[in-house]
Amino acid sequence: MSTDYYSGGGGGGGFLSTQNSPGGSQSGSPGGRMRSDASSALRPMKIAQLLKCVHAPDNEWRLDDVIIGNVTVVALVLDISKSATNTSYSIEDGSGTFEVRHWSEGGEEDEAKWGGVEKLMYVRVTGQLKAFGNKTYMNTNMPLHPILDYHEIIFHDLECISAYLHSVNGPPPVDGTPFTTPNAATAGAVSGESKSKSMSTAKWGKRPPLQLNILQYLSNHDDENGQAVGDIAVNVGESLSDPAVASRVSAALDALMDDGLIFTTTDDSTFKLA
User: Fold this and answer.
1) Quick one: 164 and 45 in the same domain?
2) Last residue of a domain, one of 169, 193, 208
3) Of the candidates 39, 91, 42, 36, the residue with the CA atom closest to the CA atom of residue 62
4) What is the number of other CB atoms lying within 10 angstroms of the CB of residue 212?
5) Are residues 209 and 148 in the same domain?
6) Which of 18, 30, 119, 191 gets the highest tally of CB atoms within 10 A of its CB?
7) Do the beta carbons of residue 16 and residue 24 sit within 8 Å?
8) Considering the domain boundaries, does residue 235 fall inside one?
9) Alpha-carbon dihedral of residues 203, 207, 212, 218, nearest 10 degrees?
10) Per the domain annotation, does 47 fall within a domain?
11) What's the pLDDT at 26?
């Protein structure tokens, strides 16, 4: 299945940063850098999730306190309204309806680029949330991508589920090994380890699993110079090659720094427990 709809901007996978680290550019403050990377990552979403996004005071869009940057939606076009300056699409995906807009440049080139979309056609839309007055809509600079294979609709729904569960529950086990009940010989050791971990995480309060995993790793590896962001990500089961994952790691580190639980050491991509 083609995934050309993820390409664009400065890098593959819809991730607009050209840096390998979720920290992105080495200039500026760590918090500002990470917010920038989070806002440029691409996340698959259902319209019901778009409707729950909140426009935060920092001018970022958030869902469950996670920064939402570029989003991609697969939906049915219900209506198309054209004017001299823009085209508005009403789309629906079974979970809600939403408005998508793109600003027209006019001329044959613009028509060739944006034409071909009709009512009752499934399309993929990629863009950013915007607000005007009390109305929220998606602004897109990328042509709507007609869905030619029904499996892409199912694929998108599964991606939305995966991205959401990953954001609220953290990553699956690194080696993919399912949990098994310990036998009598190992039950005591496992119980002691779990008790120790529970005691150490209790002092950090109620936090998302990813933040707790980062804090636990830094607590267990309290080196003088701290830990590089790449090592942190790998050891908490994250892959920075995935832009959505890089966004979650950036947001988690950013939140922990804002709360004074971690700080940077030798550079903006190395962190240590406060």
Assistant:
1) yes
2) 169
3) 39
4) 20
5) no
6) 30
7) no
8) yes
9) -60
10) yes
11) 38
Backbone angles phi and psi of 238, in degrees to 5: -110, 150
Q: What is the largest CA-CA distance in the chain?
A: 76
Together in a domain, 159 and 263: no
Per-residue pLDDT of the chain (274 residues), as tens digits, is 444 433 333 333 333 333 333 333 334 444 444 444 555 678 999 999 999 999 887 788 988 888 888 999 999 999 999 888 889 999 999 999 999 998 887 667 777 777 789 999 999 999 999 988 888 999 998 889 999 999 999 999 999 998 888 877 777 665 544 444 444 444 444 444 444 444 455 677 778 888 888 888 888 888 888 888 888 888 887 766 777 777 888 888 888 888 888 888 888 888 888 8
List the one residue out of 53, 51, 69 whose CA is nearest residue 243.
69
User: Which amino acid, one-letter code, is at 230?
Assistant: G
Could you give the residue ranges of the DSSP H alpha helices within the chain?
Answer: 30-40, 47-52, 108-114, 151-169, 184-202, 209-220, 229-235, 243-258
Domain for residue 214, yes or no? Answer: yes
Sequence-separated (6 or more) residues with CB below 8 Å from residue 121? 76, 77, 146, 147
* 3-class state of residue 34 by DSSP: helix
Give dist(CA 261, CA 269) in Å, integer: 16
